[in-house]
Amino acid sequence: MNVRRPHISAVALAAVTALGIGTLSACSSDGAAAGNTDKFDVVASFYPMAYLAEQIGGEHVHVTSLTQPGQEPHDLEISAKQTAQLEESDAALYLKGLQPTVDEAIGQSPVKTKIDAATLTSLEEHGTEAGGHEDEHGEDEHSEDEHGHEHTHEGGEDPHIWLDPVKYAEVAEGVGKAFEKADPDHAADYRKNTAALVGTLTDLDKKFETGLADRKTDGFITTHAAFGYLAERYGLTEEAISGLDPESEPSGARVKELQQMAKADGVTTVFYETLVSDRTAKTLAGDAGLETDVLDPLEGITDASRGDDYVQVMEANLKALQTALGAK
């Protein structure tokens, strides 16, 4: 949208792209950098935020993701060039508490419109409910993710709201209103696009509710405690191996604990992700005599993803859960 900004040469744009700014929008040329288009320029922190911006903004936005496809979002380190790009944008859409370097960069940035998705719905704590277990001091051992980074929002709340279609729809409505306020010339289209996206997410929620209604068991095991909201929404129980490095073997005590839980609750499957190693899941499954499958936390879309966008991958997740839980 910022048409009065100085033109950046093709060479400079290529350099920016190489330094980590991934352009997602098909609404403008692939080489265009954030803040230098005639559209409403939005920098999104990672895929779930970029998807919202794309769907709601439509042809009026140019969306740039700080997290490259295939990059684990929690590992992101913001470059100086990315910080400069952020400052040239019209809006920043992020989820505070998930990526500390993004939080810091956006907090210090002069970008006029800052949209924190965590403020657009209610956040909850998912610790012991999602696989956390207390150590000898009574503290939750799963307060950090498998990469050793803090994996909770401020106050210990779970940030993985996008994996619950209902909460994601609430965030979408908030993002739509923020876009309307920041770019009033296209407010009508933003309202229309937001309504369409909310409708799609409502349909997805109904598919999960119906698809998981008649199941044999409620429990499933994951390597990453990302599915607390999804589990709560549909009455499931997630047991996570979070807190272990994805390249390491689970402890004997944890394997025994999960074996006992799996046997008692009829759990059949250990789920792993597309962006981290499957070694832990397969080791545990082998020791416990369980199956393995992918349950995608949708932190990024790659060629290995079971779908091209949020809805397709979530539908693949539903099929995987139906199989694992014996749903008819």
Structural overview:
By secondary structure, the protein is an alpha/beta fold. The chain is built from ten helices and nine strands. It has helices at 10-18, 47-57, 80-87, 100-108, 165-182, 187-211, 228-233, 252-265, 279-288, 310-325, and strands at residues 22-23, 40-44, 61-65, 91-94, 113-116, 219-222, 237-240, 269-272, 291-294. The chain has a five-stranded mixed beta sheet with strand order 1-3-2-4-5, with helices on both faces. A four-stranded parallel beta sheet has the order 7-6-8-9, with helices on both faces. Helix 7 (228-233) links the parallel strand 6 (219-222) and strand 7 (237-240). It is globular and about 60 Å long. Mean pLDDT is 82; it is low at 2-32, 128-151 and 243-247.
String of helices and strands: HEEHEHEHEHHEHEHEHEH
Number of strands: 9
Q: What is the average of the pLDDT values?
A: 82
Overall spatial form: globular
Q: Radius of gyration in whole Å, from Cα?
A: 20 Å
Structural class: alpha/beta
- Stretches with pLDDT under 50, minimum 5 residues: 2-32, 128-151, 243-247
Give the N-to-C terminal Cα separation. Answer: 50 Å
Strand order of the largest sheet: 1-3-2-4-5
Determine the number of helices (DSSP H or I, runs of at least 4 residues).
Answer: 10
Strand content: 5-15%
How much helicity do the residues have?
25-40%
Largest sheet: 5 strands, mixed
